[in-house]
Amino acid sequence: MFLVPDVVVRFFHRMASPPHFYSFTERLMPWLVAIFVLLTAAGLYGGLYLAPADYQQGDSYRIIYIHVPSAWMSLFIYVVMAIAGAIGLIWRIKLAEIVAISSAPIGASFTFIALSTGSLWGKPMWGTWWVWDARLTSELILLFLYLGVIGLYGAIDDKRVASKAVAILALVGVVNIPVIHYSVEWWNTLHQGPTVTKMDKPSIHVSMLIPLLLMALSFKFYYLIALLQRTRLELLRRERNSQWVKTMVLENK
Amino acid sequence: MTMQEFFAMGGYAFYVWTSYGLTLLVLLANVIIPVSQRKQFFSQSLKRKR
Lengths: 253, 50
Hints:
By secondary structure, chain A is mainly alpha-helical. Chain A has helices spanning 6-15, 18-50, 64-91, 94-126, 134-155, 159-173, 176-186, 206-238, 243-251.
């Protein structure tokens, strides 16, 4: 720990305390929402209005500005969930357990968005809503993993035990993540290959790339906002018998 | 570009706007649900106190 500055260590120690976390995130929220709104407005303006139509796909490609960031988020959130679950499993940090389970519905939502907008893009471009290829199937499995995590957590009454079970399920499911990422390279598929995350130059024009990256960043902030909302709710429920929650209830905040 | 052209999306209006509408609904729900449940938590725990 000697490599980490003292200020950072103290920050994390304080954040692990539920009442501090609760009031700090309340003050943080308006800033997060402001940044999210700015990024989304700029991203949508660039993507839907400024960027030209694709020379092959016409205007249908504009679905990319939500489809691709959602698909990235579906993988990103899963990894966050698994890491937070592992931290909770090893060090029994309550807040890590709560971050893990609070991530699941948001990750499931982004997976659902990626699948359904992909379908809405596939219909006019491929001529079909769905194919059972590697990319689509592994992404569908990701949705089931998220739903499995949510269901398992709900099925166990003792939430500390539930968090352990959920963390193990999430960790086992991590094997699916590289499969999804590399599926378009490992198997022949209708799904187009990667255009942004390639080793050489991305095969997408700057006027299309910038709004895409703005939307990707905006979705990161959205995740933070939605995650904090769920985390604070779960924190209140778990800590409902502690003094700080009782005081807050009486003050009706 | 006119307003009409913008909303027509080169003939792909249904696919593009359904995608964006669906995304908006799902993302809104993910914030509204926890916020309203938190309000519920406070009003219910207050009732139990009294």
